[in-house]
Amino acid sequence: MELHNSPNIKKSSLRGDEMTLKEPHRNGSTYGAFQSKDPILAIEKGSDMEGGSNEHGISVNHPTSYLETMMHLFKGNVGSGIFALGDAFKHAGLLLAPPLTIFLGVICVHAQHILVQCNEEVTRRVNDPNATSGFAGTVEMCFATGPLALRKYSVLMRKLVNIFLCITQLGFCCVYFVFIATNMKQVLDVYGIVMDVHQHMAVILIPIMLSTWIRNLKYLVPVSSLANFLVTAGYVATMYIMCHDLPPIQERRYIADWHDLPLFFGTVIYSFEGITLVLPLKNEMKKPNNFNKPLGVLNVGMVIVGSMFVAMGFISYLKYGDAVAGSVTLNLETSEV
């Protein structure tokens, strides 16, 4: 008993556990104290890969620059949700909605920083350069290197996170399909091309499926650049049209009814949808430590995105009031080009 309770034995035992946790398996299949069967985590050692390395020494194929990563972040956060912010502001009011939108944006950015820091911490714990992973893999490693009672749930948590991510992204993509098809129908009907909205969905399914086959972020840069140009052009055009003949601010509610606030929160949170992109974007940068610096891609990009959100929501609700549609583009005059 005395030998068992000896401080030296305890220190030795703890040191042994620490070595077991940090030492990677020789064949690369085990990360520290656990073995993951997630194919996303599997990176073949010794494979020839182009490009540079991140701060953990991980070879990255076709690493992206600061500006290219910024374009991906912008595209991942600015989608159809930005045109729904007028409807969101309707449920909060002109005075209350802007600070609440900024507050939610800060929470989202803070959560993204936490995710990046957790990924860096668990990578340090397992001391395996190849352990860098995405959202679900990071959660798995957090559980696998955490308290002993929770380690057995690591694989379950990875699967749950992947399921939730799939459900979330499926919901976003359903909204995108409705948004694109509805706006295409509105425009083409004016030019005499009358089709059912479901036919428009079938048409856009083909180019969208083709775009999903591009798995490398470096190769996606031209597509993202084109998308960013079109989104920005649509944003500027919509703002330009709405800024004509704006009514007085006094005609709109400053603070909406409290029971409408959940609708506001749901729409704004939908707009800030880019947390699933954080780790893939960081891991494919030439200099990943530039991602979450004070003036890194994440902070600078989200400040730009948040400013665009507030401006769009404010002007949309000010212009159309309670008549603002779920997508403000549907409020625009259909008889004009």
Descriptive tags:
single chain, 337 residues, mainly alpha, two-stranded antiparallel sheet, 11 helices, 2 strands, 58% helix
Structure description:
It is globular, with a radius of gyration of 24 Å. It has helices at residues 7-22, 66-77, 85-90, 97-126, 135-144, 154-190, 197-212, 217-242, 261-271, 278-283, 297-320, and strands at residues 30-31, 34-35. The protein has a two-stranded antiparallel ribbon with strand order 1-2. Residues 1-60 have low confidence and may be disordered. A hairpin with a 2-residue loop joins strand 1 (30-31) and strand 2. The chain is mostly helical and 337 residues long.
How many helix segments? Answer: 11
Q: How does the major sheet shape up?
A: 2 strands, antiparallel
Assign a percent range to the helix content. Answer: 55-70%
Oligomer: single chain
Strand content: under 5%
Q: Can you write the helix and strand succession as a string?
A: HEEHHHHHHHHHH
> How many beta-strand segments?
2
Low-confidence runs: 1-60
The Rg value, from CA coordinates, equals 24 Å
Overall shape: globular
- Strand line-up in the sheet with most strands: 1-2
Structural class: mainly alpha
Mean model confidence by pLDDT? 78
Distance between the termini: 88 Å
